[in-house]
Amino acid sequence: MSENKDPQKFVYDFTEGNKDLKDLLGGKGANLAEMTNLGLPVPPGFTITTEACKVYLDSGDAPTELRDEVSAHLKALEERMGKQLGQADDPLLVSVRSGAKFSMPGMMDTVLNIGLSDASVAGLAAQSGDERFAWDSYRRLIQMFGKTVLGVDGELFEEALEAAKHAKKVTVDTDLAAADLKKLVKQFKKIVESEAGREFPQDAREQMDLAINAVFDSWNTDRAKLYRRQERIPGDLGTAVNVCSMVFGNLGPDSGTGVAFTRDPASGHQGVYGDYLQNAQGEDVVAGIRNTVPLADLESIDKKSYDQLMQIMETLENHYKDLCDIEFTIERGQLWMLQTRVGKRTAGAAFRIATQLVDQGLIDEAEALQRVNGAQLAQLMFPRFDEGAKTELLGRGIAASPGAAVGKAVFDSYTAIKWSRSGEKVILIRRETNPDDLEGMIAAEGILTSRGGKTSHAAVVARGMGKTCVCGAEDLEVDTKRRRMTVGGTVIEEGDLVSIDGSTGKVYRGEVPVVPSPVVEYFEGRMHAGADDADELVAAVHRIMAYADRVRRLRVRANADNAEDALRARRFGAQGIGLCRTEHMFLGERREMVEKLILADTDDERESALAALLPLQKADFIELFESMDGLPVTVRLLDPPLHEFLPDITELSVRVALAESRKDANENDLRLLQAVHKLHEQNPMLGLRGVRLGLVIPGLFAMQVRAIAEAAAHRKNAKGDPRAEIMIPLVGTVQELEIVREEADRVIEEVQAATGTDLKLTIGTMIELPRAALTAAQIAEAAQFFSFGTNDLTQTVWGFSRDDVEASFFTAYLEKGIFGVSPFETIDKDGVGSLVRSAVEAGRATRPDLKLGVCGEHGGDPESVHFFHEVGLDYVSCSPFRIPVARLEAGRAAAESKGSDSR
């Protein structure tokens, strides 16, 4: 007999959930339930789960049980409210709002005022005593429903609304009377019938069911998918749908709607932050269509609601132990909470708030470390405008998302994308942005709007992406049709340079020079946290970095090829060099010396070339070992594709042909061309390079090993502490490594005998070929360390040539969702990562003390650092500028794994 399973539950009342059910109820639904549990004033309602959305998206239809569950919850809501959905004489109206697990501001759909019809609008007018309010609510429903549910072009409604205001000679929609709005409703209904091929539905339940399906569908709109890719949100989560009884902020001057933050999301400072708009519904605030007043003004407008809101904000912040973003409505003096969530914040605010909450005893240092991330730290290291520079101030708006952005003015997303792809830096200028502008916002250096505040769409999305943004610059007259911006008598045409400061809200004409970030100055030792005049941001960064360094297991090294880079890396906290690319030492004037070595026909020519290179290499290594004294330095032996050191075959062929036509052929060029033809490779990245070059050109690797050993002996005799590690590149089989190591050991012994020093040089290899990873157990017999070269490993696992594919088809792969992110940016855990994991296990099984590191670009990528911690590497190595990011993420990975273990 089969076991009976309880039927799946698809709908939860707000009284049934809690904040920990975000996977099921989405962030909005889970938090509405949590606020209900806390006894806060939340309008009654219910949430349709993400599981219902997944069924709908997979099958193209809602689950069969869903309609009955919605009906049961709607009936309970109607009984509680004492009226029915769409009831003619006293209608219950509801909103249908999206709510995914992760916040996706403006990316999915919402419909307000569901339940209004030709019959019930009169009932709403009678019950509210405000005919204008009723018809305004009805026109809003038709407009939102038409655009969101029926796919009507929203511009058609906007144009009709603008025409109505123009005819009445008013500038804001609140100045339209009931009679004007009645006419507008007729126009809107005609637009729907003409564009959608059907009448606006008069049945309230049909409105609700269609709106629910539209919210499900909005999970897979182009803008939602683009936002998820940008924010790395999984595409299979689905969205919940929240059906909530309506409360109205557009009932007159004693009503309104607003957004509040428990701390400033731009700076992290405590205070009263947010926007309020009288006689308005919530969408008016976030759309930035009408300019709001600061939240602090609510105290003089409605002291009772203001005091209650302040108390609720304190309750929520203490409960969530974090900055909270709150949406609220006041209906005739009654405060209602419509949403709360942990608020998006700028990078600077994230660090400040984390340390503030530690000081308040709300969280501990481990939790503070989890509240920030490497991407935010990288943002703080970007330059800022030079305060001493000559500037031409155009105007000032609201500092919505910090940073210093310079670019050419563009007035639509299409141009922003087009110019950006051509290599231009652009500033996207709009009256206000909407979700359709997302691609342009991603392409732009910064965003500037003449309307909206810190809670407008532009501000919220920019903060989430780390983009510089200035909103609500009212003095700027933006004319998108003529593609220009006017400020007083100054006209900024499309293509003119502008600079925007997201920290002050200032907008400048032309290019303003930038200066280093104070955070970079701190890392370089030019600003000391804790001093009287130290910036509080630097102090916050210092505290969190100090904790990350205390708890992290992974050490962080630098990729550096010269003493200057090595010293900078050391100031940034590098604990050694994980990759010194010796081929970079042979560029410039030395290139011809390497060319002579490669093209040598006789032993004497080859030995002469090697003898000339040896002292130069030795001098390079002495400088490097001195700059990293006492810390390990991993020197990779020569690993260039040969073509990098040989003349271009086409240019050389042309030169020889021209010389022959003039009958003055150069014997050296003819010989060179013959040799280049002999060594020419169709795919040099997979040809004669790395260990293969060392085996084919006798004495090459021996010369480099001798230079390393002699430099180490020199430093040791000068009372230094050189810790050189010799790395053999592109090994695919243990036999290659054994041959090179035998030669290297002999050279080291010779240098030790000649200099009277005891050199403890270790020899290891790069794991950058799939075969090396698969035979790691064998290779570990001859290697004292592995360093994973994940750039080449990614190329060879995927069969990609990085230089070609990123320009040819990666964009299409990202757009189609084949990649969530480039595998060269974040390690491909399933493919490349599985090879790394198996090589770690096999290598350590052979040699338990095997040192393991990574030196590809992934060593500085936040997400990849967590993976390298998980698989048990000893260190990561990255470019000097990324070292603080890697240090922070290594600390976060350790704290995260410790927290998981304790659970």
From TrEMBL:
Residues annotated as domain Pyruvate phosphate dikinase AMP/ATP-binding: 63-291, 298-348
Reactions performed catalytically: pyruvate + phosphate + ATP = phosphoenolpyruvate + AMP + diphosphate + H(+)
Enzyme Commission no: 2.7.9.1
InterPro entries given in the database record: ATP_grasp_subdomain_1, PEP-util_enz_mobile_dom, PEP_util_AS, PEP_util_C, Phosphohistidine_dom_sf, PPDK_AMP/ATP-bd, Pyruvate_phosphate_dikinase, Pyrv/PenolPyrv_kinase-like_dom
Cofactor(s) in the UniProt record: Mg(2+)
Binding annotation for substrate: R581, R636, E768, G789, T790, N791, D792
EC main group: transferase
UniProt keyword list: ATP-binding, Kinase, Magnesium, Metal-binding, Nucleotide-binding, Pyruvate, Transferase
Keyword Coiled coil: no
A Pfam entry, by short name: PPDK_N
Chain ranges of the PEP-utilising enzyme mobile domain: 424-505
Highest taxon of the lineage: Bacteria
Residue intervals of the PEP-utilising enzyme C-terminal domain: 539-890
Residues of the active site: H457 (tele-phosphohistidine intermediate), C855 (proton donor)
Residues engaged in binding Mg(2+): E768, D792
Signal sequence coordinates: none
Database matches in SUPFAM superfamilies: Glutathione synthetase ATP-binding domain-like (SSF56059), Phosphoenolpyruvate/pyruvate domain (SSF51621), Phosphohistidine domain (SSF52009)
Molecular function in Gene Ontology: ATP binding; kinase activity; metal ion binding; pyruvate, phosphate dikinase activity
Membership in a protein family: Belongs to the PEP-utilizing enzyme family.
PANTHER family membership: PHOSPHOENOLPYRUVATE DIKINASE-RELATED, PYRUVATE, PHOSPHATE DIKINASE 1, CHLOROPLASTIC
Protein name as it appears in the record: Pyruvate, phosphate dikinase
Organism of this sequence: Streptomyces californicus
Taxonomic placement: Bacteria, Bacillati, Actinomycetota, Actinomycetes, Kitasatosporales
